[in-house]
Amino acid sequence: MHSHIKIVFTLLSLVWFDLCFAGTPLTPEQTATVKQVLSQVQQHLQHGQASQARSLLEQTANALHSEAIETALILTHMQNGEYSHALSAAAHTQAEHVNIADTCLLYAWLLSIGGQTTFANTLLQENLARFPEHQSLRSMQSLLQGGTWNTAQLPKSEIAKFQPELVNPEKTYLNASIIGSATLLDTTHAVMPYSLLSTKKIWLRNGLGITVAASIEKTFPAQNIALLKLASPIAMAKPIHQADAPPKLGGLAYIVGYVKTNQVDQAYWPILKTDIIGMPNTAQHWTLHVRQFYSGAPVWNDAGALIGITVTSDNGNTEILPIQQMAAAIDLNTESAYHAHTHVSMQDIYEQALSTSLQVMAE
Q: Could you tell me the sign of the dihedral formed by the alpha carbons of 115, 118, 122, 127, in that order?
């Protein structure tokens, strides 16, 4: 099972290569060059060397015009946590290769995971009008409209395009199960719902494909909080800013979480969903409508401040466990809150969440 998944999910597989070159004929020498570059790029990404991968791809792109190289460069931006850059590059590639339906897929997916599902669906609909028999476009549209966000529903030849590469993959967690989400508070600490804990052998993985072991440092059952200590630090795009006030009824909430899956040998990009904050319950947990994510996902406001994490109530509803309740239990190593009138874009929130929204694997 695992070997099959590994083949399917190879980031720069030759299946990709053949698909990408359908509309851009290259000489045999150029084809061999691109094939070698893609192999080297994959090795760089698997060792956490995104900068080296990017330099190699940029040099190659200057020497020849290849859709495969452009696509690999977009994914390298993502692997380096540069969502805004990746989104711009995907838009450029799609516009440049508008006669090739496959250029739409990655752009639509990047739009969707960053919360811009409406634009993604419009893009897919426009391309389906030009290519009505294109199965991958139709599969992507069904996936987004169905709300499951499970890329396993896509054709196997497409799956590798929509996930990050695993960095320094190990065999130690292959028998683990994904039990939920956690939120990185600083480079060596994360918080997750206490109710999810069933073991002390834990690994955490972010949206950049980085996996680290973690241990339970403290638990606060009454507050449904578990503080985790990372065995090695995870770099953050910028420090977490704590909201200076509880969530507000009717306010906007940005949840950046992971869809439910049990494929531990594959990394995933998190998905941003916008929601409206509902009424608080007796525990002062504010209700949300998003249900497709694991509990423990970070929830941000439109100022880019962390307002809490998601938890699941006894009746299955998704709720916000406010940052103020966590701060009362543990000494949060976070920065002061943004000013109330400061607003950040969804792209900025998503870019930060690539490193701070974590999958929790346990054995």
A: positive
